[in-house]
Design brief:
single chain; alpha/beta; Rossmann fold; two-stranded antiparallel ribbon; Methyltransf_11; transferase
């Protein structure tokens, strides 16, 4: 991961996500909606990784430290993969933007080996309200989210918010194992200069990690990192 070319917010989010994933070695991993490929490259150091991403512009100029298989496409490419062929599936900041997310989740279940793990990073609706009010002064948008309306992201389009338990509703054989908060504090810090300091980043990662398991802080975190297990 090139710290010089990745924005501070993304760098922190990647580093915290790495920590939350824990050590994964000698596994076959699918990264669906792999974006710029940074996560796929990181995981490819000790694993076999297949990455699927529909937007080729997301990764066309990227250079990676580790090799992985990159496929351009979406749901149709998932359907081509062999049943029960992956130990771990990664889907980070993707499902909210997918029109066919229930079908995608069912494909994840089909592709995972028995007792395989699904890692999903997703918007937390209440955290999004915090973001609209505290950071962006978008009061009308905050009210709309509280009223149950979808949100919008400039680069990716409409955000279809869903609850952590919805994946278990779309595919009842998934079991929710744990939820961790991500991005609870650091966006609330308005001093842009301090965010580039390594000491500040280390302190922020430490406190973010500490509160990630505390329900009161999870409730206002901008994102949730949710782990599901394929029920045998």
């Amino acid at each position: 991961m090139n710290k010089e070319t990745i924005p501070t917010w993304e760098l922190l989010q990647k580093r915290i996500t790495y920590k939350q994933l824990g050590q994964i070695k000698n596994k076959r991993i699918l990264d669906f909606g792999s974006g710029n490929g940074v996560m796929a490259s990181y995981l490819a150091k000790d694993n076999e990784v297949i990455a699927i991403e529909p937007n080729q512009n997301m990764f066309k100029d990227m250079l990676y430290q580790n090799s992985f298989i990159q496929i351009v496409g979406g749901l149709e490419e998932l359907r081509k993969q062999k049943k029960e062929s992956f130990d771990v599936i990664i889907c980070h900041n993707v499902l909210e933007y997918a029109q066919c997310r229930e079908e995608v989740v069912k494909e994840f279940y089909r592709l995972l080996k028995p007792a395989g793990s699904l890692s999903v990073v997703k918007h937390n609706k209440m955290g999004r309200v915090m973001q609209m009010v505290v950071l962006l002064n978008e009061f009308e948008t905050a009210h709309q989210i509280l009223d149950g309306q979808n949100g919008y992201a400039q680069d990716f389009g409409e955000i279809h918010y869903f609850d952590d338990q919805d994946i278990c509703r779309w595919e009842k054989r998934f079991v929710l194992e744990k939820t961790l908060g991500i991005r609870t504090f650091w966006d609330l810090q308005q001093n842009q200069n301090v965010q580039t300091e390594e000491e500040w980043q280390e302190n922020m990662i430490e406190i973010e990690e500490r509160v990630s398991t505390i329900s009161e802080f999870q409730a206002i975190a901008f994102f949730h990192h949710v782990f599901y297990r394929k029920e045998i």
